[in-house]
Amino acid sequence: MQRLSDIAFIAQVVTLGSERAFGQLVQAHQEAVRRFLRRLTAGDEMRADDLAQETFIRAWQGLSSFRQLSAFETWLLRIAYRVFLDDERTNRALPESDSQQPLSSEGEGNWALHHDLDLALATLTEKERTCVILQCVEGQSIKDIATIMSMPENTVKSHLLRGKKNLANYLRQNGYNG
Description:
By secondary structure, this protein is mainly alpha-helical. Helix content is 74%, strand content 0%. The protein has eight helices and no strands. The longest helix has 22 residues, at 19-40. It is elongated, with a radius of gyration of 17 Å. The relative contact order is 0.11.
C-alpha cells in the first residue's frame, strides 16, 4: 500500500512540482532514513539529521530520475548511503569528535545497550556495518542492499557474514553471552 501512495506522490512532484506531495514522501520515510544514518554515524543524531536533510534535498533534485526499479525507500536509502560516504570523505581528515551520543530514545536501561551496540558496530568495516544495519535494523533484503550499495548480491552476503561474525565476537568479548 505504501508503494502505491509513494508512486502517486512521486507523480505529483515530478509532473506538478508539488512541495506538499514531497512533504508527504518525507514524512512517510524520514524515520527510516534518520534511523539508518544514526546507525552509520554511531549514534551522532545531529550529524545524522544533517545528512538526512541533505538526502532529502538530493531526492527532491533527482526525483525525476527515479525509475521504480526498487521501492522508493530503497532508492532513498541509496541516496542516504552516498550522502554518508561523501560526508565521510570530506571529514576523514578532521579529528574525531567525542560529542557523539549513543541512541537513547527508549530509556536509561536501553541506553547502555545502544551504546554498546554502537561501539560494536564501529569496530566493523564501513561496508560490513552498512550491510548489517540495512538488514538487521532496516529489514532490507539482500537484493535491496545490493542496489543501495551498488555491489553484487554475493558480495553483500560476504559482508553480512563477516560483519555478523565480528559483531558477535566483539559482543561476546565484552560480556554479552548468547
